[in-house]
């Protein structure tokens, strides 16, 4: 390589880099400089090499050197094959001299293989002796090589990855001692220089120690634990836990090891010895912290708490995965459990939370625990060690539970009940840091509390008496003075938390994994005495304040499972609930509606008790019915409350069988039938949309209609047999012969007026009637405040017991409010429940689809689809259209689905195309929705508009997903069945799939197929990854249908339009999550259609950076493998090459592969794959990838 031309080229490249990096450069100058650099990278490979080596010299600036490193990496990864063997060796030697960049040697080894590593090792060892800086860089090389095993890279797959793993495993006897010597040498040197006040040198050595720890941690993910122990790394890292500068990195080493699984080969004894050593190391350092924390909590700063959290997390991983290694040592096991209990009790929520995860694992039933309560692998492995013996094996079988004392159980329960609270700004539990939103990296409070409740249930199933006594004790504490008429918000929170604990304990004992029926008489007597005493205490309470009444009702319904075994208590609970209900006044003046809300909540307690107590309430149905009739006759039971109690009746009847359900339904629906089928109100109010204006003037009748529709919804939800987990299509065809859903006979009179009602509501948005509407009705068509808040993400989750609008609160909100809001809430409620009735009715299958005319349904739903707002259209699709698609019998597809889907798809395609175009090109989604009055900035409106657009887009794609579901396309053969040969004489007409594939059926109907196909290609240009995820199965079904059929138009669409769109979708970075699926679709199109149609090759050749020889090489690669995975990898590489690495969805993809324990015995075999672990961002060379 000539010096002068090379130097000139390097100078030009350096100037171009400076221009790109200089903010003062003009856009044109930057573009020209960038183009020049790209030309260097794509130009002569030897000129690229010489220029890159000159750019990384130490006299260059850091920005220029960094770009030089990237160019070297580009050369090795993408143009390595262009160098001769001699040039590659020369390149490798030059990279050793450029060790400061550490890119070169690493890339060379990963490309050339581990044989070169063995050649370079002596040079690497020699270099590490040169000084702390060189040693640090050696450590970085040794770190990045094993990370190439655990971090997925597209150019390192299959055999190459396995080869690197085998080579590194064989090199462990050289690498691990080197790492230990570097660790020891530079740690001692750092201490020595520090004692001499040579702080700069001390920092250099400390930096080397940290780099070596990072390298050790990379090997700890897969290297045999026995080797890590053998070469002193466990001892070395354990020694560093006492030093502030290194303890977090050292702890990370143990955290990685502790997640490893016990081997099942002869090395188990050595593995156990190493793990036992780790137990002792961690317990020693943990005890130091716990002792100081208990005696002098104020002396511990945040950095120590951070380290303690890391240690605790490590011990959780160790105990969860490797507890069996120390079970033979009772004293050590007990000490470990005691420390984990102290963490669970700890003031700091972070330490408590980590310990919670441990106790959840180890207290599971021994037969269900994954790795703690029994030996991993076969039992004989544990007996290979003479130190364990039969006693050890027996203890391992029994697990940890034999070491957990009753006192431990009680302590865990006590802490769990106290921590059921959330920090509301004031400390309510003394020296106890409650859950707060500031905890980063943890699940939200609901998930945390769910884990607490899971733990309570586990303990209750193992120690029911202890759990029962503990929860009653906690209830007594939070109740305080039971005669106190009101409670503070803090007290109410504590009472609600204790109620959740009671529900968990009762359900676990009487309706959970604990088999109460098989318990001995003494235990049953103790439990009955405890809960009978609690029940009497609850029955004696005289709370009348609404909030307290609601909590009182929840405490009573929490005892539901108890009633299954002790039905004598049912009558007293029912009477108490009615007493609570009637103690609360029906008031229409209270702005907060607290009293009426509380009454609804108490009625919902009847539903929960009916569900939990099973048949225990059946003897009391007449008494409940009589009480309902009495209260209703006196005007002391509102319609929404009556609906709740009727729903409870349906739940009770479901436990008695279909006959009882039919009788109860007939009794409950008879009075509704008389009103609902009357011609007079339908003629007056439903003849045309203007009739609704007259109904709006009669508020009482309007809300009566609402409650009738909501009860139809409840009846459909609560009746029938238990829902099957089978696929929708299967569940409609496998019902018992002669089975008829209890609601089937009622659909004929329920549906016609409902369809007329919905048709009138839809027509309110039509231009024909919009002009004549009053201002109140026009305003009522805008969004409710709740809908606005939901779109802005400002609404909280519905907590347990909270009543949703459909439960009867919409009419409550009308009192004291404007007529506009009254109508608005009614419209929303009718639409919610009306759509739900249709969707739930569709799940009955033929009983629905053959009892009503499809034309009347299509008219009601699609007549005004073009003027529907996006929020309503999304709701219609979700609640009605998708159930129709899933449950419509195949012989009725023509009658039902074509007429419904054609206008829907035509309108949705046009509306979505328009709105997405405006969003992508003008920056704002144009949607037809009436937002209404919204306080705040215009930005909120734009956010809501975009949310409406995305929600509708995803729902439309969900219809396509449903159309492609396997249960509705059973006649569509898999590509494996078809084979790659694709003989023309074996292809079928599209009509042959019409009865066994819904996708195939719809492709025969152009009016439905064309807009659906347009949506399926346009969605890839819209920047919504969720929508793309939903449309992928539909695209897959289209490809399968195309391969199996001889339909020319469909083949042309898939081979050209769909193929191009999918590739275009890969240019959207947000699609990186499903990039593998998209590449898989590309592979299927090319492999199975390129021989039948020239379009796939034409599409690829139209990409900007592909050459004919690249495509020929790709074909050759495909011909050499039948593995879909390898073919997908070839397709991925080709797409990156053909687009000049511009497919951001592929460039952004970085997944992690984790290698589990590699034993000496298996070093010559492929890697063993175990449970995956997450990586915190890109590691190693990923951060230096070319841009």
UniProtKB/TrEMBL annotation:
<feature type="region of interest" description="Disordered">
    <location>
        <begin position="1160"/>
        <end position="1187"/>
    </location>
</feature>
<dbReference type="GO" id="GO:0003723">
    <property type="term" value="F:RNA binding"/>
</dbReference>
<dbReference type="Pfam" id="PF19273">
    <property type="entry name" value="Exportin-5"/>
</dbReference>
<dbReference type="InterPro" id="IPR016024">
    <property type="entry name" value="ARM-type_fold"/>
</dbReference>
<dbReference type="GO" id="GO:0005737">
    <property type="term" value="C:cytoplasm"/>
</dbReference>
<dbReference type="InterPro" id="IPR045478">
    <property type="entry name" value="Exportin-5_C"/>
</dbReference>
<protein>
    <submittedName>
        <fullName>Protein HASTY 1</fullName>
    </submittedName>
</protein>
<dbReference type="InterPro" id="IPR013598">
    <property type="entry name" value="Exportin-1/Importin-b-like"/>
</dbReference>
<dbReference type="GO" id="GO:0006611">
    <property type="term" value="P:protein export from nucleus"/>
</dbReference>
<dbReference type="GO" id="GO:0005049">
    <property type="term" value="F:nuclear export signal receptor activity"/>
</dbReference>
<dbReference type="Pfam" id="PF08389">
    <property type="entry name" value="Xpo1"/>
</dbReference>
<dbReference type="InterPro" id="IPR011989">
    <property type="entry name" value="ARM-like"/>
</dbReference>
<feature type="compositionally biased region" description="Low complexity">
    <location>
        <begin position="1160"/>
        <end position="1170"/>
    </location>
</feature>
<feature type="domain" description="Exportin-1/Importin-beta-like">
    <location>
        <begin position="109"/>
        <end position="253"/>
    </location>
</feature>
<dbReference type="GO" id="GO:0042565">
    <property type="term" value="C:RNA nuclear export complex"/>
</dbReference>
<feature type="domain" description="Exportin-5 C-terminal">
    <location>
        <begin position="302"/>
        <end position="1150"/>
    </location>
</feature>
<dbReference type="InterPro" id="IPR045065">
    <property type="entry name" value="XPO1/5"/>
</dbReference>
<dbReference type="GO" id="GO:0006405">
    <property type="term" value="P:RNA export from nucleus"/>
</dbReference>
<dbReference type="GO" id="GO:0005634">
    <property type="term" value="C:nucleus"/>
</dbReference>
């Amino acid at each position: 390589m000539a010096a002068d031309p090379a130097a000139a080229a390097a100078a030009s490249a350096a100037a171009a880099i400076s221009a790109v990096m200089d903010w003062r450069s003009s856009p044109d100058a930057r573009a020209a400089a960038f183009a020049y650099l790209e030309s260097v990278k794509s130009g002569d490979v030897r000129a690229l090499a010489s220029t890159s080596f000159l750019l990384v010299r130490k006299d260059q600036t850091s920005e220029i050197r960094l770009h030089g490193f990237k160019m070297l990496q580009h050369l090795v990864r993408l143009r390595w094959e262009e160098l001769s063997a001699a040039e590659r060796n020369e390149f490798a030697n030059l990279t050793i001299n450029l060790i400061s960049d550490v890119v070169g040697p690493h890339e060379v080894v990963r490309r050339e293989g581990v044989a070169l590593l063995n050649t370079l090792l002596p040079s690497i060892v020699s270099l590490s002796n040169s000084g702390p800086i060189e040693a640090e860089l050696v450590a970085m090389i040794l770190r990045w090589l094993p990370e190439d095993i655990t971090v997925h890279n597209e150019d390192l797959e299959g055999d190459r990855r396995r080869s690197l793993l085998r080579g590194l495993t064989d090199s462990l006897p050289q690498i691990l001692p080197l790492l230990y010597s570097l660790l020891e040498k530079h740690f001692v040197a750092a201490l020595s220089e520090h004692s001499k006040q040579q702080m700069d040198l001390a920092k250099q050595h400390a930096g080397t120690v940290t780099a070596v720890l990072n390298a050790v941690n990379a090997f700890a993910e897969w290297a045999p634990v026995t080797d890590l122990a053998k070469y002193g790394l466990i001892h070395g890292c354990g020694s560093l836990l006492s030093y502030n500068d290194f303890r977090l990195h050292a702890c990370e080493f143990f955290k990685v090891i502790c997640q490893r699984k016990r081997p099942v080969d002869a090395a188990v004894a050595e593995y156990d010895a190493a793990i036992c050593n780790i137990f002792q190391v961690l317990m020693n350092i943990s005890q130091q912290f716990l002792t100081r924390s208990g005696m002098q909590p104020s002396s511990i700063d945040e950095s120590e708490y951070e380290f303690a959290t890391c240690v605790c997390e490590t011990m959780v991983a160790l105990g969860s995965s490797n507890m069996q290694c120390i079970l033979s040592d009772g004293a050590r096991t007990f000490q470990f459990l005691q420390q984990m209990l102290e963490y669970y009790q700890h003031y700091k929520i972070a330490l408590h939370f980590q310990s919670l995860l441990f106790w959840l694992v180890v207290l599971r039933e021994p037969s269900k625990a994954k790795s703690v309560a029994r030996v991993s692998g076969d039992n004989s492995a544990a007996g290979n060690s003479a130190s364990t013996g039969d006693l050890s094996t027996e203890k391992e079988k029994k697990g940890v539970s034999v070491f957990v004392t009753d006192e431990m159980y009680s302590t865990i329960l006590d802490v769990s009940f106290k921590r059921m609270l959330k920090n509301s700004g004031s400390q309510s539990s003394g020296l106890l840091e409650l859950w707060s939103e500031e905890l980063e990296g943890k699940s939200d409070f609901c998930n945390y509390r769910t884990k607490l409740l899971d733990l309570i249930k586990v303990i209750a199933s193992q120690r029911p008496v202890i759990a029962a006594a503990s929860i009653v004790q906690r209830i007594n504490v939070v109740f305080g003075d039971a005669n106190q008429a009101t409670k503070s918000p803090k007290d109410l929170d504590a009472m609600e938390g204790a109620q959740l604990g009671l529900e968990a304990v009762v359900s676990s004992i009487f309706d959970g994994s604990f088999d109460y029926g098989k318990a001995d008489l003494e235990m049953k007597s103790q439990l009955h005495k405890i809960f009978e005493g609690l029940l009497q205490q609850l029955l004696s309470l005289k709370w009348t304040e609404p909030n307290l009444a609601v909590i009182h009702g929840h405490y009573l319904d929490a005892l539901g499972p108890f009633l299954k075994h002790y039905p004598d208590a049912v009558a007293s609970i029912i009477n108490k609930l009615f007493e609570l209900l009637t103690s609360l006044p029906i008031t229409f003046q209270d702005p907060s509606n607290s009293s009426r809300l509380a009454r609804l909540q108490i009625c919902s307690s009847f539903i929960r008790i009916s569900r939990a107590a099973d048949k225990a309430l059946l003897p009391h149905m007449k008494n409940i019915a009589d009480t309902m009739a009495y209260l209703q006759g006196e005007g002391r039971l509102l319609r929404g409350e009556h609906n709740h109690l009727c729903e409870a009746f349906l739940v009770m009847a479901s436990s008695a069988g279909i006959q009882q359900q039919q009788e109860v339904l007939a009794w409950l629906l008879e009075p509704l039938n008389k009103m609902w089928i009357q011609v007079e109100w339908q003629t007056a109010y439903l003849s045309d949309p203007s009739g609704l204006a007259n109904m709006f003037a009669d508020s009482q009748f309007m809300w009566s209609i609402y409650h009738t529709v909501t009860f139809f919804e409840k009846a459909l939800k609560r009746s029938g047999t238990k829902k099957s987990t089978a696929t929708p299509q299967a569940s409609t065809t496998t019902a018992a012969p002669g089975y008829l859903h209890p609601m089937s006979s009622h659909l004929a009179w329920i549906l016609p007026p409902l369809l007329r009602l919905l048709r009138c509501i839809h027509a309110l948005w039509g231009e024909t009637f919009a002009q004549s509407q009053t201002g109140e009705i026009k305003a009522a068509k805008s969004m409710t405040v709740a809908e606005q808040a939901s779109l802005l993400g400002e609404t909280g989750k519905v907590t347990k017991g909270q009543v949703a609008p459909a439960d009867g609160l919409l009419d409550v909100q009308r009192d004291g409010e404007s007529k506009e809001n009254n109508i608005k809430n009614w419209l929303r409620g009718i639409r919610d429940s009306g759509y739900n009735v249709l969707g739930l009715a569709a799940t009955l299958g033929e009983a629905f689809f053959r009892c009503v005319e499809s034309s009347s349904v299509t008219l009601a739903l699609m007549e005004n689809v073009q003027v529907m707002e996006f929020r309503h259209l999304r709701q219609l699709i979700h609640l009605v259209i998708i159930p129709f698609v899933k449950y419509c019998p195949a012989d009725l597809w023509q009658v039902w689905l074509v007429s419904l889907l054609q206008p829907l798809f035509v309108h949705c395609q046009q509306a979505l195309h328009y709105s997405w175009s405006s969003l992508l090109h003008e920056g704002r989604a144009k949607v037809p929705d009436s937002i209404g009055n919204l306080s705040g900035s215009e930005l909120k409106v734009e956010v809501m508009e975009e949310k409406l657009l995305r929600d509708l887009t995803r729902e439309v794609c969900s219809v396509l997903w449903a159309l492609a579901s396997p249960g509705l396309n059973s006649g569509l053969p898999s590509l494996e069945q078809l084979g790659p040969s694709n003989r023309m004489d074996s292809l079928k007409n599209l009509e042959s799939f019409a009865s066994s594939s819904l996708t195939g059926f719809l492709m025969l109907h152009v009016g439905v197929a064309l807009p659906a196909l347009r949506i399926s290609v346009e969605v890839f240009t819209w920047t919504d990854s969720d929508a793309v995820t939903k449309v992928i199965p539909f695209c897959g079904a289209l490809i399968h249908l195309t391969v199996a059929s001889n339909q020319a138009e469909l083949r042309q669409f898939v081979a050209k339009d769909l193929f191009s769109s999918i590739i275009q979708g890969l240019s959207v970075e947000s699609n990186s999550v499903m990039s593998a699926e998209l590449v898989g679709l590309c592979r299927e199109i090319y492999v199975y259609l390129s021989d039948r149609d020239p379009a796939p090759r034409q599409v690829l050749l139209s990409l900007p950076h592909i050459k004919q020889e690249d495509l020929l090489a790709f074909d050759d690669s495909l011909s050499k493998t039948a593995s879909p995975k390898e073919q997908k990898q070839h397709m991925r590489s080709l797409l990156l090459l053909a687009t000049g690495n511009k497919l951001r969805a592929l460039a952004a993809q970085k997944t992690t592969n984790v290698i589990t324990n590699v034993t000496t015995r298996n070093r010559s075999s492929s890697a063993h794959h175990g449970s995956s672990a997450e990586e915190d961002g890109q590691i190693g060379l990923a951060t230096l990838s070319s841009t």
